[in-house]
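Next comes this protein:
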Amino acid sequence: MPLYGTNMDVQMALPLLCLLLLSELFKSASGDPFSHGSIVYSREQLLALSQARPPSWERPDIPAELRRRRRGCRAGLKRREKRRRYKPSVPSVIMGNVRSLPNKMEELTALTRLQWEYRESSLMMFMESWLNELTPDSLLTLDGFHLVRADRNARESGKRKGGGLAMYVNERWCNAGHISVKEQLCTKDVELLVVSLRPFYLPREYSHVIAITVYIPPSADAAAACELIHSVVSQLQTSHPQSLIIISGDFNHASLSATLPTFTQYVTCHTRDNKTLDLLYANIKDAYSSSPLPPLGHSDHNLVRLQPIYIPMVKKQPPTTRYVKKWSDEATEALQDCFETTDWDVLCGPHEEDIDSLTDTITDYINFCAENIVPTRKVRCFSNNKPWVSLELKALLKEKRRVFGSGDKEELRRVQKEIKKKIKVDKASYRTKMESYLQENNTREVWRDLRAISVDWCERNHLQLNASKTKEMIVDFSSRRTPQTAPVNIQGLDIDMVDTYKYLGVHLNNKMDWTHNTEILYKKDQSGLHLLRRLRSFGVCRTLLRTFYDSVVASAIFYAVVCWGAGSTERDRKRLNRLVRRAGSVLDCSLDSIEEVGERRMLAKLTSIMDNPSHPLHDTVGSLSSSFSSRLRHPPCKKERYRRSFIPSAIRLYNISITG
C-alpha cells in the first residue's frame, strides 16, 4: 500500500513540472524583458537589418578565377537528347520469351508507366504469347503502344497450346496508320510475323523498317525453319532493297549465321540460365548494344534490351566540298569575246615549231580564261544523297518549304504535283544512264591459258619469286597426327604455312572439301545480288538485268565449277542453289542450278580434252577408251574423294550422254 501511494504522487508531480518548463520557454521566446539572457528586437530594427544588404552594383568584385562557374545543360545537348528520345537512329527494342502474355499485362503496364526503358522503347517483341481467338485485344492494350499479334494456328502448326507472337509499336515513334502486316506464317517448324513500319524519323539511307518476329519450337527442324526464314527475307530484300530489316525471336537450337551471312547478331548476354536462345539479327553493322532485363513475371527467359548505337551515314562521313563551274549563255558569250580579242600571234609566236610547248601554253591560257570568266559555285555533297536527285528537284523541295510557311494550300498542292512528276523524270533519266553503262561495259573472257610455274622454270627464264607472297599448305588425309615439319625455305626466306589458300580465284583448304570455297562464294555473291535488286528498283529492263546477272552474279557463282562442282557436299550445293533461286525471283524467271551448269560444263570440258591432243590430260583420257564401244572405261577408285573428282565424274556423265 505505501508503495502504491508513492507512485501516485510521482505521476501527479510530472505534469506540474512540464507546465512550469513550458511557461519558462514561452517567456524567453516572447521576449519578456524580465527574463535573463534573451535578445529583443523591435519591428523597426528588423526592417533595418533587411535593408542593410548592399545593392548588386556595390557588391565587391570577385576575380574570374575564384568566381563559381555556372553549369548549364551543355548548349542544349541534354534538352535535344530528351526531345529526340522517341526518334532514335534505329529502333530501340525490348525482346524476350514471356510464356503467356495475358497474366503479365499488369506488370507490363506498370513497367511502361514507371520505367523509361520500357516507356521509350520503339518496339517490344514477345514470343510465346499464348494468345488465341478467345483473347480480346482490349485485354492487351498499353497506353501509347499499338499491338500487332499473330496467334498460333492449331491446324497448321499441329499444336493447340503455346506459341504465338506479339509486337508492341510505340506510337510516339511510329504512327499507327503507318503500320502494316506483310506476312504471317505458322508451321510446325517456325512461327513468323512480318510488320512494315514507317517511323517519324529514320536515316536517309533506309526507306523504312521491316520488323520480323520469329519463334522456332525446340522440336522443330532447324534447317527447314532457317530455309523458310531465308525465303521470306529474300523476297523482302527483293521488294524493298533499301529497307532496314530486324529479325528477333526465340531460335532455340537454330541459327541464321550461315543462312544469312550478311546479317549481324547483336545479343551477347544470356537469356535463359547460361544459354543465349533469344537472338536479334539486323542487316546493318554496329547498330546495337545488348543488356539483360529481369524476366516478365515467372517466365524462364530474361528480357533483352537493344540500345541503338548506330551512327547515321551523314554523321559518320563528313560532306565533301566540290567546286562546279556554272555555265550559262552569258558566260559562254563572255568567254567567246575573250578568245576573239586575244592576239594569238603574240601568244604562239615564241614557240615556233615546238608543238608540245605550244600545246601547254594554249591549254594554260584557256584554263586561265575559264577560271576568271565562268562563275564557280561551291557544292557540298553528303554521303546519304540519292544518286538520282537533281538540282531542279532540290529547288522544288525548297519551294515547297517556302510555300508551306506562307500557308497557301492551293500553291502547296501545285508544288507537290510538280515534285511528284520531277521524281519520276529523274528516276527515269537515272535508269537510262544505268542501262547505257551496262550496254557499254560488256564482259570479256579473262582467264584463257594457265601454266604451272616452278622455281626452276623461273630461274631459267630470269624471273624472281616473291617469297613474301608465297605460301605453303600441307594436304594430309591421314588420321594420325603428323609431327610439325620445318617450313620451306626459298632464297633464304621461310615460307608461311597456311590452312587455306586462294589459287587462280579458287579457295583451297588443307582438307580439299571445298567448304571454304563455298563460304567465300556465298558471301561474295550476296553483294552482287544486292546490286541486282537495286537495279530492279530503278526499273531497269529484264534484258539488261539478265546481262548483269550473267556478267556479275553467275560468273562468280559458276567460276571453276568444273573443279569443285562434283566434289562439293550436298549442303554446299544447297546454299549456292539458294542464291540462284533468289536471283531468279528478282529476274522473274527460272535459272539453271549448280548441278545443271556443272554437269554441262564438265561434259564440254571432257569433250574438248579428247579433241585437243596437246592437252596434258589427253593421253590420260585416251587410255580409258573402250576397244569395242565409244564409251570410256571408269578408272578404279579406292577413295570416295577421287571418285567425286573431275575425271571419274566427267567419264560417268560422258557415258550417260552416249547411251541416253
Remarks:
- Residues 1-7, 28-37, 441-457 have pLDDT under 50 and may be disordered.
- Residues 320-350+357-381 form one domain.
- The radius of gyration is 40 Å.
